[in-house]
Amino acid sequence: MHSKKNIKELNLNHLMAVLAALKQWTLTMYRSKSVEQVMEHVMERHYDFDLTYITERIISVFFPPDLEEQRYRRNLQEVASMLKSKHQDKFLLLNLSEKRHDITRLNPKVLDYGWPDVHAPPLDRICAVCKAMETWLTSDPHNVVVLHCKVSVT
């Protein structure tokens, strides 16, 4: 049976251990502050596009319609770089924009399926996009599809 003195010593020892662990955790967090600052800097970087993983293998990339051409090309190069670093050459880009952009220089695997942005796509176009996606995705389990648009059609 523990006496009151022993219980106080146990509580004090427990408190000291918790404080030591807290101090160690604080020092670790302080040392990794530079990593956190780098991550904050990366996260604060402004991009003029929205890249979203719809599923693990289907990605949507949206560019604002009013984006000037030079900034659009720079952002498109950034997207291509991100995709190449994560997916190597295993991505197929489906251009759903009305405008035909010269994006084949960034990725030779580009299929154009664009339509006017204020209209719904024709049914045969939707079927063609779905068939292209199915063919590409079933050919290799590492393949991903990127749906590209410069207007809000995704």
TrEMBL record:
GO cellular component: focal adhesion
Domain Phosphatase tensin-type: 40-150
A GO molecular function held by the record: protein tyrosine phosphatase activity
Superkingdom as given in the UniProt entry: Eukaryota
InterPro entries given in the database record: Prot-tyrosine_phosphatase-like, Tensin_phosphatase, Tensin_PTEN_phosphatase
Protein name in the entry: Phosphatase tensin-type domain-containing protein
